[in-house]
Design goal:
Length: 124
């Protein structure tokens, strides 16, 4: 699978509101924490089967990992998968797309790039 296909799989995984809410829920956890399907279903207000289906899509995109704890599998974000996604997005889409929103807001307010940031020279 090439880089574009991998990145498309991630964007497809993010294209569903429930999956985005699921990722947001997992993002709010501490790195050592994880949640089972039952807890995720209760938190999101959807069925356990829906959560399982969404988790399958996120697992296929390498965004979440599951860890068996007794009878249940607990899920958390995959640091390696997220790092690979960021690297692929940066390589494919470039710095302009991946720039920090904070930097973009400060540039929009002042019309100038922050000190030390690359940017175009402004005519005076």
């Amino acid at each position: 699978m090439d880089e574009v296909e991998k990145l498309a799989r991630v964007f497809k995984a993010f294209s569903d509101e429930t999956r985005l809410r699921l990722v947001k829920t997992l993002t709010d956890l501490k790195p050592e924490e994880a949640l089972c399907v039952n807890a995720l279903a209760a938190t999101l207000g959807v069925s356990q089967s829906a959560v399982s289906q969404h988790l399958a899509v996120l697992r296929a995109a390498d965004l979440v990992i599951g860890e068996r704890r007794g009878y249940h599998v607990h899920y958390r974000l995959s640091p390696e998968g997220l790092a690979a996604y960021r690297a692929q997005a940066f390589a494919l889409l470039g710095e302009a797309f991946m720039a920090s929103p904070a930097r973009d807001r400060s540039t929009a307010r002042t019309g100038k790039a922050p000190a030390g940031a690359p940017g175009r020279a402004h005519a005076r």
